[in-house]
Amino acid sequence: MNPETAVWLALAVPLVGAVPIALTGWSPNLRETITLVTATLLFVIVASLVPEVLAGARPEVTLIEILPGLPIRLEVEPLGMIFGAVASFLWIVNSIYSIGYMRGHNEGHQTRFYVCFALALGGTIGVAFAGNMLTLFIFYEVLTLSTYPLVTHKGDRKSVMAGRTYLGILLSTSIGIQLLAVIWTWVAAGTLDFTPGGILAGKVEGPAVGLLLFLYIYGIGKAALMPAHRWLPAAMVAPTPVSALLHAVAVVKAGVFSVIKVVVYIFGLDHLNASENTDWLLYAAGATILIASVIALRQDNLKRRLAYSTVSQLSYIVLGAILATRWGIVGGGLHLVMHAFGKITLFFCAGAIMVASHKTEISQMRGIGRTMPLTTFAFLIGSLSIIGLPPFGGMWGKWYLLLGSLEAGQLAMVAVLILSTILNIMYLLPIAFHGFFSKPDKAADAADGQQQEGGIREAPIPCLIAISVTSLGCFALFFFSEPAFELLLQIVTP
Amino acid sequence: MITEHLPALQVVLPLLAAPICILLRRPGLCWALATLVSWLSLAVTVALLLQVQDSGVISYHLGGWEPPWGIEYRVDLANAFVLLIVTVISAVVLPFARTSVGAEIPREKAYLFYSMYLLCFAGLLGIAITGDAFNVFVFLEISSLSSYVLISLGKDRRALTAAYQYLIMGTIGATFYLIGVGLLYAMTGTLNMADLAERIPAVADTRTVHAAFAFLLIGIALKAAIFPLHLWLPNAYCYAPSVVTAFLAATATKVSIYVLLRVIFTVFGSFYGFNVLEFDLILAVLAAAAMVVASTVAIFQTNVKRLLAYSSVAQIGYMVLGISLGSVVGLTGGIVHLFNHAMMKGGLFLAMGCVFYRLGSTQIHDMAGLARVMPWTMAAFVIGGLSLIGVPLTTGFISKWILVQAALEDGIWWAAVLVVFSSLLAVAYVWRVVEAAYFQPRPEAAIPVGEAPLAMLIPTWILILANLYFGVDTSVTVGVARQAAEALVGAVP
Predict the structure, then answer these.
(1) How many CA atoms lie within 13 A of B199 on its CB side?
(2) By CB atoms within 10 Å of each CB, which of A273, A494, B152, B439 scores lowest?
(3) For residue range A247-261, what is the model confidence (pLDDT) as tens digits?
(4) Mind listing the pLDDT tens digit for each residue in B301-351?
(5) pTM of the entire predicted model
(6) How many alpha carbons fall within 13 Å on the CB side of residue B334?
(7) DSSP 3-state assignment of B132?
(8) Yes or no, beta carbons of B393 and A171 under 8 Å apart
(9) Is residue B63 left, alpha or beta, with left meaning phi > 0 and alpha meaning psi from -120 to 50?
(10) What ipTM was assigned to the predicted interfaces of this complex?
C-alpha cells in the first residue's frame, strides 16, 4: 500500500466503520465483530506507516481547501505516528474489554456506544495525523463532540450535569481561547502548517510569545492543566471503557499531543527558548502535578483517584513540552506512550472490579486480591509503571523528563518530579497492597449484600484478556521502546 | 432576447403571481404557483449571478428610460449574492409550506397567505436588485406591509400585537429612510445610487447630508433589527406562522443589511461614513452589544422560537461587526455570514416548524424527551445549533474564522474576543434545548407524537446539510463574498 493511501485510509476507516456498526444494532455479535475488524484494520494501516516514518518519510495528503491557504491536510510526522499507533492499538484491546464490560454490566444503548467510539477514534487519528493547526483544531472538536454522548451515556441527572461540565470546559477553552490563538497565528505567520523549527520566529516576538503560548496551553483544555481540569473527573461518570481509552488515552493524550505539536512545530524550540516569559507556565504545570496528586490521595472513589492521577501525569508531558529542550520533548513523548499503557491498565482493573464485585470505592477493596488475583496483580503492574519503577515502561518517560529538567537548569522541576513520584507511590500502591494483604472487611461486604465465599470471582474473560495485554505491554515497553525513542529523536535533532 | 430582461423578470414574476393567487383561491393551486415562481426565480438568479461573474455589472433600464431619470436595476456580485440567498431560501421553504400552512392557517385564508408571501418575496428581491434609492423605499414598503400581514396570520392571538408592534417600528424605519432619501434628493437632485455617489462629495460637508446619513442609517437599522432597534423582532418571529418565521429570519434582515452596505459603501463611500463621521465605532460597539446582550437574553428564553429570534439579533451583530471593520476581509466575513446565517436560521426555524406541526408548541418544557419520538427533527436542530455555535466543519465556523481574522488584522482585540465569547453563549442556549430534548423523559401526560412528515423533513435537512456542505467547500460562498467585498470597498473614492 502506498503510504499516502494509508494516511487517508487511517482517517476514513474508523469514520466509515461507524456506519455498519450503527446498522447492525440488531445483532450485538455482528456489531462487535465489525468493531473489532475496524479496529484491527485501522491498526494494521497505521502500523504499516511506521517503517516509512522511521526511514524519514513524511507522507501527506491534502483533502480539501476550506479557505484560501487553509486546507484540511494530513501529514504523518514522528510524534503523530507514535500517538496514532498507541491509540489504534489500544482501541483493539479496549474493544475486547468493552465486550466483556458492557455485557457484564448490562449497559443500555450499546450501539450508540460503539458508534461514538468509532467516531472518537476517527477524531483521534485526525488529531494525530493533522498536517496543520486548522486540521488539528477541527478533529480536536470532532473528538470533543463525539465523546459527549459517551460521557452522558447513562442519561441520568448526574451524567447530564457531568456532560455540561465536560462540554462546557472543553468547548469554551477551545472555541474561546484556542481558536483565538490559531487565528492569531494565521494572521501573524500567514500559514498554519506544522513546520520543523516553527513558523513564528520573527513574526511573534517579545511578551506576545508568552501570551500566545498561554492561549494555546490553556486553550487546549484537553491537556487538563489546572484550573481547566475539572472536565476530566466529571467525565468519570461514563462507562469504564470510555474512561479507559478516551479519558486515559485518546482524548487527554490528544490534548498533550497538541501541546507538544504547538511547541515543536508552531513555536519551535529555539524560538521558545529565546523568549524569557514562558517560565511561569512551567510553574503552572509543576503546580498541577503536585496539587492533582494531593487531591488524588484524598479520593476514595477509584475512578476519581485515577482521574486526578491522570490530571497530574498529563502535566508531566506539558512540563516536558514547555521545557523546550531535547530531552524534555523526548521525555514528554515517551511519557505519552507509557502513561497510556499504565493508565488504561488501571482503568481496566477498576472496571473489572466494578463488573465482578460491584465495588467502586477504594475502602471497599480491601482483600480484593483474594477474589480477583489477576486483576489486582495487573493493577500492581500498572501502578508500578505509573510510578516509574523498572522494569516497567513508565520509567523511561520520567527518566528523560528528569534529564530534560536538568538540561534546562530547572532544579525546581526536578524536585517536583521527585516529590510527585513519592505521591504516586502514596496514592497507588496502597490499593494493590491492601488488596493482597488486608483482610476483607466482612461487615462492609455484608452491608452491601455481598457474599464473600472466598473463591475466585474474576471479571468476564474478554476483560481479563485486555487487562493482560496492557499490563504485559507495560512490561514489554521497558525493553522495546526503541522505535518510539528513535522517532522522537527525529523530532529534536534537526 | 429573454436573457436581457432577466433583472426585470426577477421582480415581475412573483409580483404578478401574487394577484393571480387571489384569483385561483384553491390552496393547492396557489401553493403550486408560488413554488413554481420561487423555483423560476432561483433559476433567474443563478443566470444573473453567472452573467455577472462572467461579464461584470448588469445595468438594466426599466422601460428603456436612461438613468438617472429612469429606474435602473443594477446587478453586481453583492446583490446577486443577496438575491441568491432570498431565492434559495424561498425555493426550499415553499415545499415545506404546504403541510405547515395547512396546519397553521385556516384553509379559507390560505390563498391570502400565498399571495402575501409572493408580494413579500417580490419586495425583498426588488430591494436587492434596484439601483435607485427611492425604488428601494417602494419595495421596502411592499415587503414590509406584506410581512405585517404574514406575521398576523399566526395561530397565537399575540401574533396580532406582534405584527402591530412591527408595523409601528417598521413604518418609523421606512419613514426615516424616506426622509433621508428626500434630504439627499434636495441636495443633489437625483435618486439613482450611482449618480448620488458622484454628486454627494460636492455637498458632503453640509448639515443636510449629515442628517440624511443619520436618517438613512437609523431607518435601515430599524428594519435590520440592529441592536438596540431590534425590539420588534423577537415577538414577530415568535408568533408568526412557522414558514413565515423561517423565511423572514433567513431573508428579510439580510436584505436590510444589504441596503446598509449599499448606503454606506456605494452611496456615501466608506471613507465618508467611517473616517469623516466615524460611524464605524458606533456600529462596532452596537454589534458587540448585540452579540453579548442578545445572546445572554436568548439563554433565558422558554420558547425556542423566541430563543432563536434573540440569537438572530446576536448574529446580525456579527454581520454588522464585519461591516464596521470596513476592510475587505471584514466585509467578506459580514457578507458570507448573510448567507451562512440564512442557512442555519432557515434550517433551525424549519426544524421548529416540524416541532410545532406535531406538538402545537415550541416551549422548551413541551419538548422534553422529544428526541426519542422525533429523532430526525432534533438531529437537524443539533446540527443547526452546532453551526450557530460555530463548530468546525459547519458554516458558522467559516463566518467566525473570517470575522476574527479581520478583527485581529485590524488589531481590534476586544472584537475578536467578543465574537468567540458570544459563540460560547450560543453553546449555553443551544444546549438547553438539546438537554431537554435528549435527556429529559417525555412527560406522562404528553400527547403521543411521531416524526414530522417527509415533506417537512426534506426541506429542513436540505438547509441543514447546506450548513455542513458550505462549512467545508467555501469556494462559492467565500469566493463570491470576497469579490463582492472587493467591489464594494473598491468603490471608495
Answers:
(1) 15
(2) A494
(3) 888 899 999 999 999
(4) 999 999 999 999 999 999 999 988 888 899 999 999 999 999 999 999 999
(5) 0.91
(6) 34
(7) strand
(8) no
(9) left
(10) 0.87
